Each structure stands twice: as C-alpha cells, then as structure tokens.
Amino acid sequence: MGMLDGKTALVTGAGRGIGRGIAIALAAAGARVVVNDLGASLAGDGVERGPADQVVGEIRTRGGTALPNYGSVADSEQGPAMVQQVIEAWGRIDILVNVAGILRDRMIFNMSEAEWDVVIAVHLKGTFNTTRAAAIAMRQQQGGRIISMSSVSALGSPGQPNYAAAKAGIIGLTWSTANAMAKYGVTANAILPSGATRMIDSTPRGQKVFAETGKWPSEMAAGTERDPDNVAPLVVYLASDAAAGVNGQVFHSFGYGYTLLAQPQAVRRLVADRRLAPEELATLFPGTLGTDLKLPPGTDFGRTLHERPPAEWKDLGGDSRFWQSPWEER
Fold it and tell me: Which of the four pLDDT bands, split at 50, 70 and 90, describes residue 198?
C-alpha cells in the first residue's frame, strides 16, 4: 500500500529534472498525477509536448495513472485549468506541487524589464495562479497539500535578481497560504531544491564541467548526491497524511539530506523612550545593531553543515544522522 493511495496531484514543470522525479515518485506512492510541462527552453521559449508525454508514458509503464498537460502556469487561464483538469478527471485535487520555472540571468545593472517580467510571471505569478485555484477546491473539500519549489537563490544569488526575487516571493506566498488555509486542513510548505539539472548545465560551472569531461552535470548526476530525484522523497512525505502537522515550513534539499530553515526571528533591537535622532543612531548603531553584520548567505547556504562539531550530531541508527542547531530558539 502506497503512502498516497487514492490521492490526486498536479505537478507543474514535471517534464524534466526535479519536477519529473517528483511526478514519478508521487505516482509510485499511489497518486494519480497530471503531469504539466510547456516544453519550453530554459529561457521560456518554444512549446513541445514531448517532455510531458514522456513522463506520462513512464508512469503508465510502471503501472501508475497519469495525464499530460501542456499549459503555461504564467497564463491566468491555463494555470487554473491544470487544477480543473485534475478535478474533472478524478473528482478532487489533493496535492499541488509547483516546480515550473525558467531562467533569464543578468546582473541587476544590466537586466531588462522584459527579463524581469517573464521570470516573475512564470515563477511567482505561475505559483499564484495554480495555488489560488487549488486553494479554492481544497478549502471546499477541507484538505490538501501545497508544496512549492523556492531556491537558495532567494538568499542572495548575485546574477539572478529576477529569479531570486521570485523565489523569495514564493516563500512569502507559502507562509501566507499556510496561515490562511490551516483551518481548512490544508498545508503549504516550500522547498529549496538542489540537483544537477539542465539549469545547472547552462551555468558557467556546468559548461566548464562539460568542457573538461565531455558530459553535462545532469548526465553525471544519476544515482549520486547531485541527482535531482533526491528531492522527491521529501515531497512525497509532505504530500501525505503523515505530514498533516507540517505547515508553513521551508526546507533545503541538498545531497541525501534535508535541512529545516529557521523561521524569521528577531536577533537585536535598539529602542529609546522617544524618537531617536539620526545623529544618535550614527553613534549607537555600530555598537548595537551594526556589530558583526553578516552578508546574505547566497547559494552556498547549507553546504557546510557536515563540518559542524561531532557533538552536535545525533546517530539515528543505520546510516542516518541528525544535526540540530545549538542556537535554535526553543
């Protein structure tokens, strides 16, 4: 018996990479899945039915149930129509996984308005389009799971102001949705996924790997810590009834493990019994709020946790272990 037997799902951007692995894993756990993929290039150009059809074929070959969808999440009619397709096919929608995305990388000083708009449209508006439609149905049926892909780029990737802003926006949208939908039995969580996908192939680092080895990072990732399919087990869990109490959380999927991010918390406060003058702030700030300020973490977030002192790690048996921050607020 699968963890998701009887459940229905929509996975956007499921024709390749992380989305493909998630769709296949949901189906393997018993869910019936609408596999959405526009079939566009990384830049969002073009349309091709092949990616969605191929994943649907893989799921059906393995004995699962799936239907293709070729719409654009950025379109205010096509996005909700994907959700409606699930409902019309199987009577309800239990799971929404937002993965669809594109890249238009530039530094902030040479990014065009068009490059900004299209990335925001696909990632942030696209997540809104499907989430709003799913929330309407899930509120009526009193239950559901919404899982959206954000990115470590939201933490300060310098060459991706559009992508970073959209992915940070998805976290805010997730928190808002979690608070709004909790009383209806609906959870909303976000994941910062990692893995060697065609997005990694397109970067200078990916091109360097190809030049040195003759293979793209995505080709070399299967079965390794860089395999994008490593994200899928966390999605299956969050989509299940077992995760009913997990809501409004943000996770980082990296390698063979998962990291829970801290919720925003106050760490310092400077206050007086009256309005402070700018000159007073200039005097007080350096020794209070301004002491040892840290830069945004950027895309290297979470990659050095294995270097934490052994005493902070707990052996869970087998080959599993658990780290908990010694400064986590209790």
Answer: low
